[in-house]
Automatic annotation (TrEMBL):
Topological relation to the membrane, as annotated: Multi-pass membrane protein
Mechanosensitive ion channel MscS domain location: 202-264
Cellular component GO terms held in the UniProt record: plasma membrane
Organism: Halosegnis rubeus
Ranges in coiled-coil conformation: none
Record InterPro entries: LSM_dom_sf (IPR010920), MS_channel_C (IPR049278), MscS_archaea/bacteria_type (IPR045275), MscS_beta-dom_sf (IPR023408), MscS_channel_2nd (IPR006685), MscS_channel_C_sf (IPR011066), MscS_channel_TM-2 (IPR011014)
Keyword list, A-Z: Cell membrane, Membrane, Transmembrane, Transmembrane helix
Compositional bias ranges of the Basic and acidic residues kind: 366-377
Designated name of the protein: Mechanosensitive ion channel
Tree of life domain: Archaea
Amino acid sequence: MAGQSTATPTPRTPPEPSAFALNLADMLAPTRPMQYLVSALALVGFLLGTYLVYRAGPLLKRRLTDDGAEGLQVAVATLLSICSAGVLVVVWRRTPAVRLALDSISPSPVAGVRLFIVLVALSITYTATRVAKRFVRVGESRNAITSHQREVLHHLVQILLFIPAFLFSLTLYGIPAQNLLLSASALGVVLGLAARQTLGAVLAGFVLLFARPFKMGDWVEIDDNEGLVTDISIVNTRLQTFDDEMVMIPNDQITDSAITNRSRNERLRVQADVGVDYDTDVPEACRIATEAMDGIEMLMDGPEPEVVVKEFGDSAVTLNLRFWISDPTIQKKWAAQNAVMEAVKQAFEAHDVAIPFPQRVLSEREQTDGLDVRAVDTDASADGDAPDETGDAGE
């Protein structure tokens, strides 16, 4: 029986690159250093474009539905990836290999099974991201997370699910995933060294988003900046000061600073000082001031307003008025202070409690250089009586 010979398939040679592709490659990157530079710019452009598409999400959702905005974001990100891949193919003169790969795609059972598996993997991944997004929205509706945390969690889940699906799809077509991971690691090291400050701010942004030392609308004080939180991103935090100025603070600076959140407990203790005359019955003055504050509606009933003796001043006994306001804002704090000071002043006037002005007492001392200084009766001066002249010029 004659032996049957099996024909081994001859490998197909890649087609010659087109003149247009060669001219474009020579124009973009004629040398090896230029190839590396253009490749790095293409990757950075892809990452920057993807970030801008992500940042445009809230604006798109104001004009479109959530699904429409996400679909547009995915389409733009896909277009950016295709453009970046095209630049890399042209710069590194790999158009013949791409053409050969496209020509090798022919309708066959194996190719159909591979394509079907890839589509199933991507469909499962997309469904998993939608389910995860539903859970994230439930957490937001229960006030467990903020809207910014919802966005960050959603995109993190997308990245964590789509990257394994993408690598799995590549292995089906014989492309080793470890090579891509090594290239990505090298690129990550380069970007980490070049933009370590920005990456530090991004990591600090994740810490702020999940540690939640403050939220949107909170009244906070960070270093010398005080105002309302208007935006929290993964790079910086925006404060609107009470002078109507917008301050942007890097997140890494915030994590290294002391943060005072005046809205955290949904209440704030406000203090004001008032002085009474030394001849005044201090306990009675404290009682009058407390009753005056009890009649102000914008103050909280509990904890109750209180008055304590703060210090013995130069001209008066200083009383410290302490009271609480709910849902504090700077406008509410100022309004409460004004209301308390007006009410206490009226109550003191009604009960003849004097609020003294600064006074100075002049005392007599021995004559030193021909000038005799003696005490002046300030009460007599206030009544219009002129003081006696007791000093004579020195001889």
